[in-house]
Amino acid sequence: MMATPGMEDYLEQIYLHIERSGLARASDIADSLDVLPSSVTKMVQRLDREGYVYYERYKGIELTDRGLAFGKKLVKRHDILEEFLRIIGVKEEKIYEDVEGIEHHLSWNAIDRITDLVEALERNPKFVKQLKEDRTKQKDE
Length: 141
Ligand code: FE2
Hints:
Helix content: over 70%
Number of helices: 7
Order of helices and strands: HHHEEHHHH
Shape: elongated
Number of strands: 2
Mean pLDDT: 92
Strand content: 5-15%
Bound molecules: fe (ii) ion
Radius of gyration: 18 Å
Low-confidence stretches: none
């Protein structure tokens, strides 16, 4: 069973829609998160109260400076985790859902350390290649 999307998921999607197309409508967010538009309205009202978005019915969702900064941080976290799973050889078709599953459960401290690791791995393509070869070898045995 999929967990109900939380505040961070909504903010992440709002940020992505605004980044890609300049606007975020409640219906877009509902489609992206596979939830009812009424759930989006409820969450967006909460995000508005907490200072992350400006929301006017029929006008769409805008990010405040705070929402923009936090949205950016969330998207960066998602991307770094995708990169991490990709480097260690997780199957491409598993990556998105795995990241959606774990991202909200890691501390920012853990994210920072994974970021360091990903950067170190990117500086060592030889090691990454070796990892990949080891995986292939294990499969063959
Ligand atoms: Fe995500």
